[in-house]
Amino acid sequence: MAAASIIFFQIFLNIVGSVQGDKISFLIAAFYMTRLMQYIFNTGLGIQIAQSNMACVLLAVYGVLNITSGPFSAISTILLFIDAYIGAFIFVTENDISEYAGYFKKGSYRPMAQTSADNDGNQDNSFFKI
Question: Which of 36, 49, 76, 121 is least enclosed by beta carbons within 10 angstroms?
Fold first, then answer.
């Protein structure tokens, strides 16, 4: 019930912001309308991608960069930023992202490409530290 009230409040703020001419309010209103569709109906993959947390984070960053466009869009951007933070926190705590963290460590072990000089049989096919 709290999720639906937040969605409807955001839609209200962005409709009022859109009437006042805030360009960012159009984007945030469209985002929350797709979120409302996802909340009410069993929608397809396109709607799920459009209302994903990554889209929320990107829209929140864009909204923060345009925070001075109007009072209703500023309030909506702050709430969108909080929504993006909560969604990112839930994603990180519920998913095991430790297997992906190894790809970004400096000095990780990666296989070297074998050259014609390596074909003499003197070297083994082990991994070298980069």
Answer: 121
